[in-house]
Every structure is written in C-alpha cells, then in structure tokens.
Design goal:
Mean pLDDT: 90
Largest sheet: 3 strands, antiparallel
CATH class of the largest domain: Mainly Alpha
CATH topology of the largest domain: Arc Repressor Mutant, subunit A
Strand order of the largest sheet: 1-3-2
CATH superfamily of the largest domain: Winged helix-like DNA-binding domain superfamily/Winged helix DNA-binding domain
Strand content: 5-15%
Order of helices and strands: HEHHEEHHHHH
Radius of gyration: 20 Å
Number of strands: 3
Shape: elongated
Length: 187
C-alpha cells in the first residue's frame, strides 16, 4: 500500500457509504468526533487529489455539467481499488505500538469495519486491541509503581500519570465488553 495518511483513509471510509463533496467531508470533520482531523481546504482537497491520482476515488460529474465549469459541485466516489485499499487498512495486524501511539487511528478503523469486513474479523481486531491494552496497562502500572517509590504521593505529575492509567483501563474495559457483545451476535 502506498504511503497514506490517516486523513486519506478517513476520507475513504467516509466515501464507502455514498459519494460526497469536499465540503461534505469538511462538515463531517467539523461536526463529529472526527473533528481532530483538519477540516481546512488546504488538507482535504490535496488529499482528495492524491486519492484520485491513485485511482482510489473518482470524481462524479453531475449530468449536463461541463468539465471546465469551476462552480460545479465536485462529488467523489470510492472505486473498487479504493475499497480494496480501505479493507487492507482495516485488516492490518494490531501491535502494542499501535495501542500506545495510534489508539485514535485504531478506533477509526473499528468505526469503518461494518459493511467492509465480516464480524468475526472485527472481533479478531478487538481481541488484538485488547491484548495490546493489557500489555500496555501492565507496563504503565509497573512504571507508576517505580515512579511512586521515588516521588511524593500527591505529586501532580504522578497524579496525571494515574489519570492516563485510568483512561487506558477504561478503554480496556470497553474493548473487552464490546468484544463479548460482538461474539454473542456471532452465535
């Protein structure tokens, strides 16, 4: 797979349902939990062009419009190679490094799985996320214990680190619960 950005994969995921304009995509990035992606035209439109150059999306021209009409709406649709690239991204193995540094991207992948990959693959993905979280939370607890031995009990840095651990434990609980709920639906 060519070097792609998470923004480009997010765009592919959003286009999997229906063709959209750059403006539609920008609105989604502004008004949903995806707002941490840049909604600026300087990010979205170059990403659309890169995806179009790879053949992963295509522009759809409204009936009767001229190619040189600069005012027309530019709608983009996912192509079959784009869908294959999206599925390959969704099916990538999850590593502990992904859990440590790219958990937001992992949840984006999970959000786009329905309709792209089968449910058992989504369960396997969440199993991998869960295992990564178990390992990462264990490492964080060890580090916290080590830091606690050298730091006053109410040190703000230690308290902030504790929040990080609790956050990861909450995500681990969610992953376990969600995995169990999905498994239940498989039977």
């Amino acid at each position: 797979m060519p070097n792609t950005s998470t923004l480009e994969m997010a765009i592919l995921g959003l286009l999997r349902g229906k063709p959209q304009t750059g403006y539609d995509l920008r609105k989604t990035f502004t008004t949903t939990a995806m707002r941490h992606y840049s909604d600026s035209p300087g990010s979205i439109y170059p990403a659309l062009r890169r995806l179009e150059n790879r053949g992963w999306i295509r522009e759809i021209r409204p009936a009767g419009s001229r190619a040189d009409d600069r005012r027309r709406r530019h709608e983009f649709a996912l192509t079959e190679p784009g869908r294959e690239a999206l599925i390959a991204w969704l099916e990538q193995q999850v590593t502990v490094e992904d859990v440590r540094f790219r958990l937001v991207e992992l949840m984006l992948r999970f959000a786009f799985m329905d309709g792209c990959i089968n449910r058992s693959d989504a369960v396997r993905f969440l199993d991998q996320v869960t295992q990564g979280l178990v390992e990462h939370v264990g490492e964080m607890h060890s580090k916290f214990k080590e830091m606690s031995a050298k730091t006053p009990p109410l040190h703000t840095g230690l308290l902030a680190f504790e929040l990080g651990i609790r956050s990861m434990e909450t995500q681990l609980a969610w992953a376990r619960d969600t995995c169990a709920r999905l498994r239940e639906k498989l039977q």
